[in-house]
Amino acid sequence: MVGIQEDLADSRLLHFESKKIWQIAGPSIFSRLAMFSVTVVVQAFAGHLSDLDLAAISVATTVIISISFGFLLGMASVLETLCGQSYGAKQYHMLGIYMQRSCIVLFLCAILLLPLFVFATPILKFIGQPEEVAERTGLVAMWLIPFHLSFPFQFTLQRFLQSQLRTGVIAWVSGLVLALHAFVSWVFVYKLRVGIVGTALTIAFAWWLSVLGMFGYTVCGGCPQTWTGFSTQAFVGLWEFFKLSVASGVMLSLENIYYKMLVIVSGFLQNIESSIDALSICITIYGWESMIPLGFLAAVG
């Protein structure tokens, strides 16, 4: 009898904990899937332009963007610890300070990564990629710079809100952005016929719209305890914050780029454009899938 009661108590506890995790993990998974799907939509529309355009957008987003994405995302992950500690210690005002500090450090690092985009064409040619693919990828990379510059603010705001269990807000913003992005991409590709440049710009538009949505919620009263306005304290301890986050940035960047280097290797195969297109689609599906465990990791954190 005692054993049955203990099993029932354990079952109720498991149900309670699972419910708590899903309340955080569900919106986190959805928001990650939605923002990742922005890139998927871009690749899908690029595939309607030409095989070369799809290959270019695939190399640019799967390889070049992945380097900056992984590095800046890793740096922003430090904010989860700092904000979590401050929230637990009821030093709510420090969350806003850490958020501003993170934006400053990550944006400066994003500026330092710009040569990766500016010199994408010679870099790709140097590692042996076909000239036509390298030229078109270099063009796409230049127009993806606004997308790259949104990362510091997107990652920082997401972790700032996540540490306060505002995952539902992130999910709503991400869902609306994805829906609007799909419509804008359709207009750009089929109605305005702006080609690969316009397709690349739509992804930047979507991510900056997400940034504005989360920032608007934060400053318009959504986080009254943790957002007390801009502060000069954000400029204090920038070097310490950089040292704390850079190791995490390098680690995650390397982890993120390992399997995506296969796209570069596919450039040495026959039927280059088809090989790159096929492999990038497979990697995109894998990346889509990985958003689910990442959402659970956010809930555990």
What would your notes on this structure say?
One of its GO terms (molecular function) is antiporter activity. The chain crosses the membrane at residues 29-49, 55-82, 103-127, 139-157, 169-190, 196-220. Belongs to the multi antimicrobial extrusion (MATE) (TC 2.A.66.1) family. Pfam families: MatE. With 301 residues, this protein is mainly alpha-helical. The protein has one domain (41-300). Helix content is 83%, strand content 0%. The longest helix is centred in the N-terminal third of the chain and has 45 residues, at 2-46.
The number of domains is: 1
Kindly report how far apart the N and C termini lie.
37 Å
How would you sum up the major sheet? none
Query: Percent of residues in helical segments?
Result: over 70%
User: Outline, from the CA principal axes?
Assistant: globular
Q: Which segments are poorly predicted (pLDDT under 50) over 5 or more consecutive residues?
A: none
Strand content bin:
under 5%
Alpha carbon gyration radius: 21 Å
Helix and strand run = HHHHHHHHHHHHH
Give the structural class.
Answer: mainly alpha
Helix run count = 13
GO cellular component, one term: membrane
Family: Belongs to the multi antimicrobial extrusion (MATE) (TC 2.A.66.1) family.
Pfam families: MatE
InterPro entries: MATE_fam
Which keywords apply here?
mainly alpha, 83% helix, globular, membrane, transmembrane, antiporter activity
